[in-house]
Amino acid sequence: MHIRKYDHDFSRRFFLEQTAKGIATAGVLGPLWPMIGKSADISKAYPDELMSVDAWSKGKVKSGDFVTADNVDIVKDLLDPVAYMQIKTMGRKIKIVPTTRDVTRMYPHEHLEATLRNQGKAKFDANGNVVTLDDKPWNGGNPFPDAKTGAEVAANLTLSWGRHDNSLYCIRDQEVSPDGSLSYQYDFAWVEQNTQARTDGKVFPGAEDKLRFNTVLFTAPSDSRGTSYLSTWYYDQRKFPELVGYLPAFKRVRKFPTNQRFEPIAAGINFYLSDGWAAGDPMLTWGNYKVVGRGPLLGAVSQTWYGDHPNWERPVHGGPKGVTFYDANMELCPDVVVFEAEPVGFPRAPVSKKRVWVDVRNMMFIAYATYDRRGELFKSLETHFSLYEKGDKKLMDGKHSAWSWTACMFHNVQDGRMTRFEQTKSIAGGITQGYNVEGYYEKYMTEQALQRLGT
């Protein structure tokens, strides 16, 4: 009799053992990052059962198949609880695509280069902030690509949200009511400017104590046009960002309390500033980070860009009126670490904890959930990512194909409301998306800019 060393349950046992130890180190058959450094191919780090849904399910679900209510129980263990509920009871479906083996297709090129260049050079200082081994601010890429703790995983998400030195995302938002009707629609720009932890290793002039500037600017409908918010993040993750905003009705810029980060940014929206990138608050205003799970998961991390559509719009389906969910391609992510954290800096926070599912291949979250003060599931966030290539269509962020998020869905499971964001080529007001563009700070991220844009 031939006994297989890596039988179907080998990875399951391995992940259970690692979770029990609170360890998040990537790779099952061997360390992941040395392999990525040599060839960018993850195949030798995982057994066959983790490299395709076909092998994992023993052929019951295959690449090209749709997961629906009829077969979702086969892959229930590969879904976060909200995604499972959506498919099982709300008419959602997802399409299975092959697992990405080439990690260069899961990063902006410069961010991956910085991650490889600076690998092994990060640590936490006495205050809990990420610094280099010689105690200087972090100088680019994921500080902990082979993260071993929940805090290290969270640091990878926090220091560079979009993983470009700056980004402008054109977002079309549609709010879906529990009855399936559209209740609100907004166009807004989300603009990020990293001042530290940049891929070029430089510090943005005059912002030596800052981490980023972030502006949210609404351009439609007419009663919201010109409303904007500017967050100025400090590098010290113990400090709350400064938050100012321009409200057209008052025709002035005003300062807002910065620790009230669990409120909608506009009427009807499920999204809070705290939710951004599953790391919307300085990481040291949250605490008790711990690894609570590890294993494979289905995630929308490839083939989700609709660049062949005029404004990159994507199809919708499901729910009472067929418009609740975006279409999604999902692949088997072979190694996903799950961590939890509690809002220790927010005495009146309406949430008791967050849970975040992170793909260890690129240390980016693919699912996120918050829980209310009773410990009941409150709200989920599912985000779709992709290299911006489809057929003969391609978007560049310089010399390389762009990589970013393409869509996300915020589902309040307690009241049934769905917020859907899709990243579009342009939005009302003539604003177009961009990465690593000179002049974004002056145009969008000063109080004078907010005043000018609002009027």
TrEMBL record:
Spell out the Gene3D superfamilies in the cross-references: Lipoprotein localisation LolA/LolB/LppX
The protein's matches in CDD domains, at most eight in alphabetical order, are given as:
LolA_like
Keywords of this entry:
Plasmid
Q: Which Pfam families match?
A: DUF1329
The name of this protein is DUF1329 domain-containing protein
